[in-house]
Design brief:
This protein has nine helices and 18 strands. It is of the alpha+beta class. The radius of gyration is 26 Å and the shape is elongated. The two termini are 14 Å apart.
């Protein structure tokens, strides 16, 4: 069995005076996740059922983005505003201020949902796509199940109070990650700070983005606030520094200010106390594995996934990566054949094992060369 330790370059800053055990946020439920590694850096009752309020609008946006991506919808398409949508704009909820029979583009409705948090825009989108908000909620739930949201049910498109509209901060983090990863071009809408709607029968209305962290210029670029009297204040937020991104979701803040400071505290704590390292790039990072009787002496091994690892900064010195295989591997070898394991250790504890596959076929040498190599091995012990 061959065991080869691979050199992993780690660049990190040790801030021992800031290594707290957790960010100590005064909130009912919270989660902090690394975007690339999917690892949970901090959690507080992450599977507690909550009313997601306007964080529901993240899924509404995802449904639209999926249709745009599949060319089943365009930003220029227009939907006619129903009386149901208009009535919601008159009921004291956050609104885009649509009027009955307005013809509004998908682009403007999206901005009304994402930036102005317009519940009326959500209904317009839902009815335009699915015929009714009830049908649209079914589509939302299908998508939630598809992406691994196991404790969520959507009853409407906006998040207005309904006991059947519930989720968890863990599921909302999964949903936020899906949107950012699969729709990066449309995710840009979430960092826009203002939206002006040239409404029918009145002066244009300019509204600011409800996300308070966008205005602090600390690297936060989304994603969505929420508020219900029964749930208090909530926020799904994402911050990027250099090439690293974290996602934080929390619900149950007692005030707007607590929501802002608490969410920022979680994100800052995560960047300050942890680092994420890329161990392997999907189908690109090459791990050489010795072959026996092959036309190539080394088989190029690859992983079928991006491999990231998130560690506390104080643990990073103990990181080791081991390429482990029973070898040399006898030829012939076929492409996609498993040939090794990539083993990741922290302080001699195995924490992750990833299969390594051949990136190409390696044919066996002809019978004469095979005989020569075998004799050479018997005499000299050299493969």
């Amino acid at each position: 069995m061959n065991k080869i330790f691979l050199k992993v370059t780690l660049i990190y800053l040790i801030l021992s005076f800031n290594l707290y055990s957790n960010p100590k946020v005064d909130v009912k439920t919270a989660i902090l996740m690394d975007y690339d590694s999917n690892e949970i850096i901090y959690e507080l009752e992450p599977d507690m059922s909550i009313y997601p309020a306007s964080m529901t609008k993240i899924m509404t946006a995802i449904i639209v983005f999926d249709l745009l991506k599949d060319n089943k919808l365009s930003m220029d398409d227009k939907f006619i505003i129903s009386e149901k949508s208009w009535r919601l704009s008159q009921s004291g909820y956050s609104s885009m201020f649509l009027m009955v029979n307005d013809e509004v583009s998908v682009e403007n409705l999206l901005k009304g949902i994402i930036i102005a948090s317009g519940n009326d825009a959500c209904i317009a989108i839902a009815e335009g796509i699915a015929g009714s908000e009830e049908n649209f909620a079914d589509i939302m739930n299908e998508k939630a199940s598809e992406i691994g949201m196991t404790n969520t049910n959507f009853a409407n498109s906006s998040g207005i109070n309904d006991p059947e509209n519930y989720s968890t901060v863990r599921d909302i983090a999964i949903m936020s990650q899906y949107l950012i990863k699969n729709h990066p071009e449309y995710y840009e809408l979430f960092k826009e700070t203002t939206f002006t709607w040239d409404r029918t029968g009145g002066d244009p209305i300019t509204q600011g983005n409800r996300n308070p962290l966008l205005y602090k210029r600390v690297g936060v670029d989304g994603i969505k606030t929420g508020y219900l009297a029964v749930e208090k204040y909530s926020l799904a937020s994402s911050m990027k520094r250099d090439q690293r991104r974290l996602i934080a979701v929390a619900s149950g803040f007692q005030t707007k200010n607590a929501r802002s400071t608490g969410s920022l505290k979680m994100l800052s704590w995560g960047f300050r106390n942890t680092d994420t390292f890329q161990i392997s790039k999907k189908n690109e990072t090459v791990f050489p594995v010795k072959s026996w009787l092959g036309k190539k002496t080394d088989i190029n091994g690859i992983t079928k996934e991006n491999v990231f690892l998130t560690l506390q900064k104080k643990e990073a010195r103990g990181l080791k990566v081991l390429l482990n295989y029973n070898g040399p591997i006898k030829a012939p070898v076929t492409k996609d054949q498993k040939i090794a394991n990539l083993e990741i250790y922290v302080k001699d504890d195995l924490i992750k094992k990833i299969p390594v596959f051949a990136s190409e076929d390696v044919d066996k040498v002809n019978v004469f060369k095979s005989l020569f190599m075998s004799l050479n091995y018997l005499i000299w012990g050299d493969v």
